[in-house]
Write a structure and sequence with these properties.
The chain is built from 16 helices and 20 strands. The chain is globular and about 65 Å long. The chain is of the alpha+beta class and 495 residues long.
Length: 495
């Protein structure tokens, strides 16, 4: 269950993909900072893809499990009858920025980060619930529970409120040490545990599918539905990055670099998150708001070209490739939608630095790709400083459709980049999680044998040195403009 669509992938337990289906849904962004989805459309998408893929299977008893992957940080309010009182606020909704800024640098904010592994930022349900309590008091009074998108799906399918440790650990409300709701966060948000679902392991399953859906899916047996994990955590598994010196890099709508760790990587500068993968492992890393969505923004709003097809993506890459490394001294800070890691600043803005008369369309387009890739470099660097060296990066997300961008990332990171085109990495991670829960695989290291390597990109040392010139400017640019970003946001809100 992703930001733009839900995908169902049917696979053997060993990772051989048989077929897949997907269904899209819109994100409502009527004003800056707003990012909502209609939970009914999300539920319909899940039902639609499950119906389609299960309809392709002649003997339903051949299906041994369904396992879920879902986007993090979403939250919605429902009443005592389970009726939505709000839309689903996605990770990109930043309306709670005021409360996040007040909490972030306080002693309580720092304690919450260390205990929960989630940075204090308007993306987090902790801040969103606080915003609802203060800005929508009538809604807050009528709220029975605050739940994520995946929790809403499980409630509709099983009439139960459960949340996996992974989704819970991305809320800012859950201790990733005790695996329970964190009292200090609850007190700050003004809620009790009654407002939240029951936390369960990522390998927890429900078998009591409501009859109406059992009939729609054509199921005669009690098929286990594993609650699963978050898309970010599962993308690591699905990519095959299971060793300590390996990381998973994803650039889709947003971007992230992550690795598996036996303990949280608590960064003294608060740059990294630490989310739960299973009962013994964590997914540590950093995420950026600004991935492929920036290409879409630039194409549709600046170039006046639609960006909704493979052909449009290919045209963008081909045009950007006409510019040389460094985009003739043009540096792009890609914070078009604010930013999460490493700066955790919803006020951050996008910047083109160094524009002169020699720059044309292709330089701006290449600078965008370089800027997004520089952000990935910063995240990888923070992970190495905290958790040790990383030798190999496993890539996933929409950007892997471009060899040009993959080679650029390899050159900028100075790392070997490995790609598998078999299927969506998060969906395959869900397959592997279910296989582990069913004892089909015994250790996560066995995933290596199931992930087919499709391509390997080796870094070019000369190109890496050329990128360093703009990267040095990029690394210092945010700090120089941080105060100005805050002023611009204040003036925009005032005027």
């Amino acid at each position: 269950m992703g930001t733009t669509h839900t995908k169902a992938v049917v696979s053997t337990a060993k990772g051989d993909v048989l077929f897949e289906e997907k269904a899209a849904y819109p994100t409502l962004q009527p004003f800056p900072g707003h990012s909502e989805q209609d939970p009914a459309l999300l539920f319909d998408a899940v039902i639609t893809v499950l119906e389609k893929v299960l309809g392709n299977i002649k003997d339903k008893k051949d299906v041994v499990a369904v396992c879920f992957s879902a986007a993090m940080h979403s939250i919605m309010a429902i009443d005592e009858n389970g009726i939505p009182l709000t839309n689903l606020y996605t990770w990109a909704d930043t309306r709670s920025n005021k409360y996040a800024k007040e909490l972030k640098d306080s002693a309580l904010g720092k304690a919450i980060y260390l205990e929960t592994g989630t940075a204090v930022h308007p993306m987090s349900p902790l801040c969103k619930i606080t915003w609802i309590r203060n800005e929508l008091p009538d809604i807050f009074k009528r709220t029975s529970k605050f739940i994520s998108g995946k929790e809403y799906i499980f409630y509709r399918l099983f009439d139960r409120f459960v949340v996996d440790f992974s989704i819970a650990s991305a809320t800012g409300l859950f201790s990733n040490r005790s695996f329970t709701w964190f009292e200090s966060s609850l007190k700050y948000a003004g809620i009790s545990t009654d407002y939240l679902s029951d936390p369960v392991s990522t390998t927890h399953s429900e078998t009591g599918l409501l009859k109406i859906y059992k009939d729609r899916f054509g199921l005669a047996h009690n098929l286990p539905f594993f609650v699963g994990s978050s898309d970010g955590c599962l993308a690591i598994l699905g990519s095959g990055a299971t060793e300590p010196d390996e990381a998973a890099l994803t650039i889709g709508t947003s971007g992230a670099v992550r690795k598996i760790s036996p303990q949280p990587l608590n960064d003294e500068f608060g740059r990294l998150f630490n989310y739960v993968l299973d009962d013994k492992l964590f997914a540590s890393g950093g995420a950026s708001n600004n991935g492929g969505i920036v290409l879409k923004w630039f194409s549709e709003n600046i170039l006046d070209k639609p960006f909704s097809s493979a052909e449009a993506f290919e045209w963008f890459m081909t045009t950007a490739a006409k510019a040389t490394i460094g985009s003739k001294g043009l540096v792009f800070l890609p914070y078009i939608y604010g930013e999460r890691s490493p700066v955790w600043d919803a006020d951050a803005r996008g910047v083109f630095l160094g524009i002169n008369s020699l720059h044309s369309r292709e330089h701006f387009m290449r600078a965008i790709l370089e800027g997004i890739s520089f952000s990935m470099y910063q995240l990888l660097q923070a992970m190495e400083e905290t958790g040790g060296p990383i030798d190999t990066v496993y890539a996933s997300g929409g950007f892997i459709e471009s060899d040009f961008w993959l080679q650029m990332v390899s050159d900028i990171l100075g790392k070997k980049v490995v790609v598998s085109y078999a299927a969506d990495a998060s969906a395959m991670g869900a397959v592997f999680l279910a296989s582990r829960a069913l004892d089909i695989i015994k250790e996560w290291s066995e995933v290596k044998e199931m992930v087919v390597t499709s391509a390997v990109f080796e870094p070019d040392a000369a190109a890496h040195e050329l990128y360093k010139k703009n990267l040095q400017i990029f690394n210092s640019l945010y700090k120089k403009l941080e105060t100005d970003f805050a002023i611009l946001t204040t003036e925009n809100n005032t005027n």
